[in-house]
């Protein structure tokens, strides 16, 4: 997904910049909470709200996500479905996350590459991904957590590769940080490869989504995180291919750099509105599945 230019220069989008930094500047939890309540009430008026009762299973997931900012969802894809995804992407073009002029296939990854992504056109056409993003269980979790009908505001499939340390190739995604995507949002992350401790697991600092974020987002070292929060608050998400978890990335987190084998991960972001950090280019969808047009409006048409 392409990033919007938020500062003056070629391709600068003043409207994107204004709306993005407006939500970045309001960090006081009471005021931010008030804005979220007003905005989601507006979406409810326009889009309605799910009137179904919350099941005990969903209530348990919501309580854990609210309390910790992280909840395991278990296996959401079978190994066979993961194999289908791998087969589809085998010869598709990857783009280096840190150099969008560098493209290659999985068979020819440059040795210094840390992160690489597939394009939205291929993601939309890949089997199982859109169906999972629109799974009724995930959409209900998103609607209840956000408080109104959600928007899929990011959909990505990314490889993380073992690579030797290189200061000029350090990735902020692999260093502890917070996201600031929208007024309210969370992500469902799905491992498409088996992920153990040495394979680049997601690491989250429990409960930090409920703390005040700084206006100027920053990255933090492992040592700083240990001193500020203690190692007992770290959640390291490991699991077999098909394992998923929901995480509010307004909290402190990172994707650990893999050292043993590459990691492939699907990321689905559900939010209150679009994220003005991105430029959206909805892709044509010609499959047989029927999707809610509002929820998917930024991804497909």
TrEMBL record:
It comes from Pseudoduganella lurida. One of its GO terms (molecular function) is 2-oxoglutarate-dependent dioxygenase activity. It comes from the Bacteria. Gene3D superfamilies: q2cbj1_9rhob like domain. The keyword Oxidoreductase applies. Keywords: Dioxygenase, Oxidoreductase. This is Phytanoyl-CoA dioxygenase PhyH. It holds the Pfam family PhyH.
